[in-house]
Design the sequence.
């Protein structure tokens, strides 16, 4: 079980790092609210938009187990809260699979909430950044916009 969690965490971090090559590929929005409050609001808003949370990863808690071993290399940015949710919408997943099975590498989707000093940031990899020219591009655009709208609604923006 722990091995599966570590693998999932590595996949989540690698997708964030890879997207860093193109800053436009990452949707980022911040609010002056505690991390857990933002996380719960985003969770609720996504589910109201029919994107169901199928897995939660408390990344901050899992990383903290290595604080002593990593020493000065541990959490240099002093992030206080890091938690991700993996979401899926069966209808949209089916539409993507019907139009371009290769785009299934984007399913399920990951949203990460980070917080430091009462300021929280929500991160989401934009699907349209990799969907250009795909037969599923229009569906992925709709998914991306539905998720971004849900996040913005959760933060009252």
Sequence:
């Amino acid at each position: 079980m722990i091995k599966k969690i570590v693998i999932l965490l590595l996949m989540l971090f690698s997708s964030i790092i890879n997207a860093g090559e193109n800053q436009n590929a990452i949707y980022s929005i911040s609010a002056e609210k505690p991390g857990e409050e933002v996380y719960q609001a985003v969770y609720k808003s996504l589910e109201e938009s029919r994107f169901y949370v199928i897995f939660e990863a408390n990344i901050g808690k899992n990383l903290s187990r290595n604080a002593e071993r990593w020493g000065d290399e541990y959490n240099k940015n002093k992030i206080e809260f890091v938690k991700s949710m993996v979401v899926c919408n069966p209808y949209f997943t089916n539409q993507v699979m019907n139009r371009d099975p290769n785009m299934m590498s984007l399913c399920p989707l990951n949203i990460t909430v980070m917080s430091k000093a009462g300021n929280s940031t929500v991160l989401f990899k934009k699907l349209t950044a990799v969907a250009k020219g795909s037969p599923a591009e229009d569906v992925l655009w709709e998914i991306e916009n539905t998720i971004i709208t849900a996040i913005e609604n959760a933060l009252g923006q």
Remarks:
- The first strand starts at residue 26 and ends at 31.
- DSSP finds seven helices and five strands in the chain.
- The chain has a mean pLDDT of 89.
